[in-house]
Structures are given as structure tokens and as C-alpha cells.
Amino acid sequence: PPQTPIRAAMNSIKLLRGDLPSSGDQPSSKLTTYFKNCTVDPSQGIQKRLEMLGQVFSPKFGEAVGPHCIAYGRERFNLGVRLYYKVMESMLESEEKRLSVQNFSKLLNDSTFHTSLLACALEVVMATYEESSFKNGGGGHGEGEQAGRDLCFPWILNVFDLSAFDFYKVIESFIKAEPTLSKEIIKHLETCENLIMEKIAWRTGSPLFELLKREQEAGATEQAETPAS
Amino acid sequence: SHDYHFGLEEHEGISELFDCD
Description:
- The structure holds two protein chains of two kinds.
- Chain A has helices spanning 5-19, 29-36, 43-65, 70-99, 105-108, 111-135, 142-150, 155-160, 164-177, 183-198, 207-220.
- By secondary structure, chain A is an all-alpha fold.
- In chain A, helix 3 packs antiparallel against helix 4, helix 4 (70-99) crosses helix 6 and helix 6 (111-135) packs across helix 9.
- The longest helix of chain B is centred in the C-terminal third of the chain and has 4 residues, at 14-17.
């Protein structure tokens, strides 16, 4: 049958759901082994963080879409968690191959890493669902269209109180680690990347300024380089 | 078609981006 925007969106959702094991709301045995190999086991911290972020996400989703949609928010959060675990496992496999280490204690106990990774997984889930309301141009889908706009990036950053700069760090590794992402979703993540680079990362309070300051201080003792164009 | 431009080198990964060794 011809590919309509709605059919394309439905296929993306089906692919996303089908691709994620229904038991994936818990870490796989492989991922559990990575946790156990850590100097400090991150399992409890990860579980607690997910519970806390889930309690934050659903009400905010309800605020943006409507109180009768909180259950959809929970559903999307659960899909996001499954994608988060799947991508985390794939990222660690690549890192193990690249660095020849199995102890990722520092990374796996870094709260910012987990929040950024989950935020990226949720952005993918929501962009997959919102594809239908964006492209549909309204036709009887008024509420969905409004919701799409409200839930649009950088909505997730505000929900998780996450800096754009930290979110930016996971995007490329996320795309590398999840080869089943559709071209539309990759393009969406690239749009988020550009938005961060051009605008959001430069807002007051961004950790980027602190990083630049530290780099400058560290560089002050070294020989000054000729400014690049 | 759309191709994402990967900026990270082969020797770089998520560990470096979050300051981990």
C-alpha cells in the first residue's frame, strides 16, 4: 500500500515497539554483568533514578497534553526505559571493544550520563509518536497536534532539569549504538543537536561556560596557540 | 536520503565525553 504520513508513523511505532523486548524494562543479564563488574555497583542508583524520573515525567506529560493522558505518558516512559537499557548495553559493548575494559564504574555511577541517556531515549520515543501529529496537518487531530508542539524538544530538558550541553554529549553515541533508528528520527536528533549548538548551550547557567573557563585556565600555563579562524 | 555526520573519532567514545577513563 502507498506510504502515507500516518502509515509511516504507525510503522515507526510498530518497529520501535517490536524492536524492544517486552521484558526490557529491567536490565538484561549482560547489562547486569556490566553492573556487577563495577567497583561500585550502580544497580540501585539506576533503579532509584528511574523511579524518581518516572514520577516527574508522567505528571509533566499530563500537564502538557491533558490530565486524561497521564497513562499515555507512563506508557511512553516505559518504552523510553526499554530503549535506554538497550542502548546502554550496546554503548558498553562498544566501549569494552574499544578500551578493552569491563569496569565502567565511573560512567555507570554518573547521574548526568544516565539522565542524558534516558532523555535521549524518551526524545526518540516521543518523536516517533509525534511524527503522526506533526505531518498530519491537523485533520481531526487538533489535540495531538497541540500536544506535539508542547512536547517538542527541548521540553524533556526542562522536565529532567538537564542541561542541553550534557544532552548533546549522548546524541552521537546513541545514534551509533542504535542502528535501527529511522532516517526521520536521526534527522530529528540532528535538529536537536543543531539547536543546542546554535542556541540552547549558550544560555545563562550552561555548564559550557564553566568548562570553557577551566580550559582557559589550564591553557594559560601552556604556550598560547595562534587563534584559528 | 539523510546521512548523519559522525564527528567522533574511532578512539573517542561516551566514556571520554563524561570524563571517565
